[in-house]
From TrEMBL:
Pfam families: LacI (PF00356), Peripla_BP_3 (PF13377)
Domain annotation HTH lacI-type: ranges: 7-61
Gene3D superfamilies listed in its UniProt record: 3.40.50.2300, lambda repressor-like DNA-binding domains
Protein name in UniProt: LacI family transcriptional regulator
UniProt keyword Transcription regulation, yes or no: yes
Amino acid sequence: MQPRPHSTLEDVAKAAGVSPATASRALNGTTQVRPHLRERVLKAAEELAYTPNAHARALAGAAHRTVGVICHDVSDPYFAAVAGGIMRVASDHDLLVTLASTFRDPEREVAYVSMLRAERAAAILLIGSGFENPDWERALGAELEPYLKGGGRVAVVSRHRSLRVDTVLPENRAGAGAMARALLDLGHRRFTVLAGPRTLTTVADRVGGFRDELRRAGVALRPADIVESAFTRDGGYAAMTEVLTRGLDATCVFAVTDVMAIGAVAALRDRGLSVPADVSVAGFDDIPIVRDLTPPLTTVALPLQQLGERAIELALTENPGRRRRIHRMAGEVVIRASTAKAL
């Protein structure tokens, strides 16, 4: 076998009679290659005077120093803030972060997990709501189980009912209940709720907590009072526009996320209505921008960066018993000028 100038990995694989992937694993020293195949690959590499690409080797070595972060939408300030907390801790541990947005597509989330498994990421973090979807639960579990058995680390932020992994759990239900009590104390009894897709566990928990607290106070929340739309600013605008078109019959609008509340306020203003003089508006999350709005938004404040910090700390902390660790983080109602006493 004559050496070729600038022999490639494909040349080595062909000479050894193996796939390029097997050749790569053999040259990188992984134990997942049978000894006789490794010997063939190493012999072929020697005869071809193959020199691995330095950059490719550096990337391969970095795989074990990479944390994969999968969120719904990194352009959403909620996820940006949580991801910021993850990146700060990752930097302290000399880890690289790969960030992916699923845009709330369950299949895309599973695909990203599969990709990170293949790239041997040191940890996988899922930020954001799980899905009320049995097919997604099974598919995601099938990807994560072998990854965990192989030594991978997984942590999630928010409720993922079927995943037995370390969890940072914002108190969504309790926070929404506390918001309902605060709005009831302001004298409100007629509400409109702007909700995201009900297949998201975060939406189910926030709507459920708000509704249950109203029920305890003897205030009914009818199905028509809950308007479902995209979990975005534009979704909030569209939902509020729908309510205004059919006739607003509420003194207070509760949006289950701040970005939806921002869209709702814009829709009200476009119709010539004033917040809170004509209707109060409240949100959930306390993303940084809401305190600078006119008027500033009443919301349930979550420690967003701390959610991310705690998630990666869980993933990087040894858990010999492999028992699920759940770290709960409470929200706090912050009353600002977007809400006023009911007339």
